[in-house]
Amino acid sequence: MGIVIDFVYLLAAAVISPKVVYRMVRQRRYRSGWGQRFGKIARKNPEKKSIWLHAVSVGEVNAARTVVDELQKRFDNFEIVISTTTDTGFARANSFFGGRFEIFYFPFDFSWVMRRAFRNVNPGLCLLMELEVWPNFVETAQKLNVPVVVVNGRISDKSFPTYRMVKPIVKKIFRKVSLVLAQTKEYAQRFKEIGCPSETVVVTGSLKYDTAQITDKVEGTDELAQQLNISCHCEPEQSEGAAISKPADKIASVASLPRNDVIEGRRLWVAGGTGPGEEKVILDVFAELVKEQQFKDLHLAIVPRKPERFDEVAELIKQSGFDLIRYSSVKTGDRRQETGDRKQRTEDRGRNNNFDNRPSFIVHRSSSIVILGDTMGDLRKFYSLATIIFVGRSLVPMGGSDMAEAAALGKCTIFGPHTFNFKQTVDALLADEGAIMVKDEQELLDAMRKCLADADFAERIARNGQEVIRKNQGATTRTIEQIAKFLNTT
């Protein structure tokens, strides 16, 4: 079986290799970790058995934080090692765990590569975040009697039909998984329907609620506020039960900050984790808002999800007629603004198939500034400064970004309809009026107007959202209880 799978992988590699080479050259991706991808993995403490946790990208790494911390506290006789697939996931894992644990790129799922990787990693238990089950990986683990546990498991609405179509193949793979810890009853049922034995599927809840820090202020927010000369309307950090400051009208100036101007004393709209096609919509909505006298104090920060898109989004901001501040430059002490195109213009909406029916907004020259968050690891700081948050990759069919982080910070949170990667969180937030879903540009404009003009409404949304996060926490404890059954007998 392994030989057949290896042959299929070779064919797939031949097909995708031009794309990989292009991204290496043009986007500077996939340039490191090739030895690790072929199973050459070093250990800090090779005399110990390890707990091998695999988290594909940024979202899975974020979700793993509380589990990793608890495993370190309770099972120090094991060495924790963490693998990721993407460059952004690797960077995030290093920011969270670097120095404490070995971080490496997940090996290619060729049978011989996996055998080498397992020899070097020497795991006593493998944890796979959400749904990253590879056939040669689980085959090798089974032969070596290493338990494999899917943690925070989910099968999205988008992927479930595909899994059902190939159930005979998927069933053989999942029969080799020791335990699936599912986020919800619905996800648990889906795992069973694609072939997981009922006795191996347990509902433990979503770890995203536990990793979403319930607070009114994030470490580093004051520094960000000072760097940007933006008034920090966060209250001093309080306990989890603390009240939420009004996000729309109670903007307390920071007297110690240098007076600059353009950003000092303004309200801030943060669009975080955005994807292709969204930034243009956000900029058009922003242009409409700042035409109105009551919203003249509004500024916008855009934080794209993918770092390779930073320059692209910077050009888009300037083409839309706004002056631009790059946060990467501010961090190095350069506060120069990049001047946008001052010509009044109308964008041709027909060029974007995702938004063919959007109204055609006219972009005017504005004194408002757009901040580009073109650094890694600073999104939550921007969120902490925000008056209103838009969670990206949701107006376009990309599955959404993590809206639990925004809601946990007590912010009025808005997102689009394409959130299939966060279905359970979205359902919970909307059911308790803890967030706002908009379907298109016009609804986003209407929602922004209402939230900015009606402080009580925005505060109620923010307060409800934070409470939804609070009442859904506890998945980490339930997850560790299940994992401990394997480690206590190892």
Description:
This protein is α/β, with parallel strands linked by helices. Helix content is 42%, strand content 15%. The chain folds into two domains: 32-205 and 474-487, 3-Deoxy-D-manno-octulosonic-acid transferase, N-terminal domain (Rossmann fold, 3-Layer(aba) Sandwich), CATH 3.40.50; 221-471, Rossmann fold. The chain has 20 helices and 16 strands. The strands form three sheets. The chain has a seven-stranded parallel β-sheet with strand order 3-2-1-4-5-6-7, sandwiched between helices. Helix 5 (111-121) packs across helix 6, helix 12 packs across helix 18 (441-453) and helix 18 (441-453) crosses helix 19 (455-471). The longest helix has 25 residues, at 2-26.
Keywords:
Rossmann fold; 42% helix; 490 residues; 20 helices; 16 strands; globular; seven-stranded parallel beta sheet; alpha/beta
What's the topology here?
Elements: H1 2-26, H2 34-37, E1 50-54, H3 58-74, E2 79-84, H4 87-97, E3 102-105, H5 111-121, E4 123-129, H6 135-143, E5 148-153, H7 160-165, H8 167-174, E6 179-182, H9 185-193, E7 201-203, H10 207-211, H11 221-228, E8 267-274, H12 278-289, E9 298-304, H13 310-319, E10 323-326, H14 327-331, E11 345-346, E12 362-363, E13 369-372, H15 379-385, E14 388-391, H16 403-408, E15 412-415, H17 423-431, E16 436-437, H18 441-453, H19 455-471, H20 475-487
Parallel strand pairs: 1-2, 1-4, 2-3, 4-5, 5-6, 6-7, 8-9, 8-14, 9-13, 10-13, 14-15, 15-16
Antiparallel strand pairs: 11-12
